[in-house]
DNA sequence: AGTATACATCGCAATATTACGATTAATTTA
DNA sequence: TAAATTAATCGTAATATTGCGATGTATACT
């Protein structure tokens, strides 16, 4: 099949999985780290920084943007990307909530 | 191509991406939530709980196991799965570190 | 021994992802 | 206006993922 059966899972599970998928690629991790490090925004620098083709970087940026993690604003011929603070905090909280939901048990394995 | 160029990213980026990928599916999120909720371990219950075929659940469990997130111990004809506490904490810390690395800036977008 | 139970694995079909060259669109500079 | 710059999109090839039926394997029950 190859198609995820989203309808059998709840909204939270699908949402979490979607965000995780957006983050689940080394190039996209690297892109986010660079955006964070550069403090300000980025664009074509990433192509030189990462050593991937421009089309590939653009595709990764689109995925991050679709997930709402980053946002871009047009500045002349360039596009300035940066972290969407609101979403970042929200995701961060969802994640800590998820990880905090587990508390070690002794009676198993 | 369809193949990720892992060699151009560092160990941390690849590691983070791998773990994220293992978590990035609603079925695997649901499996983890069920294991956590049931406190003890699980096995065939997941097939009835989630409504996916046994082969499919088994495949998802293998991915979680490969990522080190869960571990299973054989108990007769059954296999008891549970969260690997050590790895869970480690991942949790890596994630909070990653999210904490961003601090809001004003001069952009 | 023979049957039942619980999982893992194989093989397949449908679909998604990754990467890139080529092209297009918009803006800036000469 | 022409050329240059920047980035999005299209099309395509290679590969990965998702899901399942069928089959294999190991242990438990009778």
TrEMBL record, chains A, B:
- Keyword annotations from UniProtKB, A to Z: DNA-binding, Transcription, Transcription regulation
Question: From what superkingdom does this record's organism come?
Answer: Bacteria
Q: Check the record and name the InterPro entries matching this protein.
A: ArsR-like_HTH, HTH_ArsR_DNA-bd_dom, HTH_MetalResp_TranReg, WH-like_DNA-bd_sf, WH_DNA-bd_sf
From which lineage does this chain's organism come?
Answer: Bacteria, Pseudomonadati, Bacteroidota, Chitinophagia, Chitinophagales
User: Which named protein is this?
Assistant: Metalloregulator ArsR/SmtB family transcription factor
- Pfam families attached to this UniProt entry: HTH_5
HTH arsR-type domain residues? 8-106
């Amino acid at each position: 099949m190859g198609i995820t059966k989203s309808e059998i899972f709840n909204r939270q599970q699908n949402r979490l999985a979607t965000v995780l998928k957006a983050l689940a690629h080394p190039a996209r991790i690297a892109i986010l780290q660079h955006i964070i490090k550069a403090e300000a925004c980025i664009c074509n620098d990433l192509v030189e920084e990462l050593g991937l083709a421009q089309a590939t970087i653009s595709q990764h940026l689109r995925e991050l943007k679709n997930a709402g993690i980053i946002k871009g604003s047009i500045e002349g011929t360039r596009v300035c990307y940066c972290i969407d603070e609101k979403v970042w905090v929200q995701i961060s909280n969802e994640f800590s909530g998820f990880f905090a939901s587990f508390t070690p048990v002794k009676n198993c394995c």
